[in-house]
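Hi R.,

Here's the chain you asked about this morning:
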Amino acid sequence: MNALRFAIIGAGNGGQSMAAHLGLLGFPVRLWDVEPEKVQALRRRGSITVSGAVAGEVRVPLVTGDMAEAVEGAAVVMVVLPAVYHGSVAKTMAPHLRDGQVVVLNPGATGGALEVRAALRGHGCRARVTVAETDTLLYACRSPKPGEAVIHGIKDHVAVAALPAGAAREVAETLNAAFPQFVPASSVLETSLTNMNAMMHPAPTLLNAGRIESRAVFEYYGEGVTPSIARVVESIDGERLAVAARLGVRVPSLVEWYAASYGTRGGTLYETVQQVRGYDGIRGPATLQTRYLFEDIPTGLVPLSALGGALGVPTPLMRAVVELGGTLLGRDFWREGRSLEKLGLAGAGPEEIRRMTIESR
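And the predicted structure, written out as tokens:
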């Protein structure tokens, strides 16, 4: 049994996959979830069975709905739940964190570490903790029910950044004890602007809305990302790259990111996505009430577009997806989402934004 202790916050697709994987690797894990029914189901089951890229059955020593119990003694707190809950879970964690702990958002979406740092401070956390975020979840995975996880694929490369930026190397080295895929990023600007969920989820979901509402069964990536839809996504990706360039941050295009993460190469995004075997079997959403919209629009496209507006970079396609998604779901994602005010970046220019995302204070 490895001495490095992990707390996994969130027992959904990624949380159960990560808990099982860590357990099979010999790391002690505590698993937390907000839903009492899920906690009870996992306790009754007593173990998690994982299949696919990682296979086996492992007991999780502690499954709890008590945050204090979950994070006690953990060196690394892996937050693996939809990014829309980052602020609320930070509020719950704030009284219970201790000096030296590392909180890693898997992934941070756009601005996750900034939001969590502000929330921890705002709710009285005085512990000296490092807040970090990844650019993507390590797995392509699903959890059919509590106690079962399917890992369709494991990425070859996951970037991790920290606040302060200089702590990223130490965070990556700590995580490398279990996961060699984690590599340090220059700053949270790099990871936040490499939010590929915001590229690959909202637009294809909206453009498949008729198929989804008619309850058609289809493979999300293999069938849902058609050549024309892929061209739309590539254009949205161009807006993201323009925002990054205005900030002086080098981030990969979607096609470059797929090459680094999955080892796939294609002349177009469509050709590239069709080569990702880790996507095989991943079905499209059964409803428009999906995290592909209610998570990836407010925590991805909203802050990306807001940054573009503040920096004078047009993002018409991002804005169109935000408006269309909000109309279909009857929500105001501009109000709900990660505004620059919520991230502590309101009124800041490129140089100040770079400074605020590098320094610890």
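The longest strand covers residues 139-145.

Let me know if you need anything else.
M.
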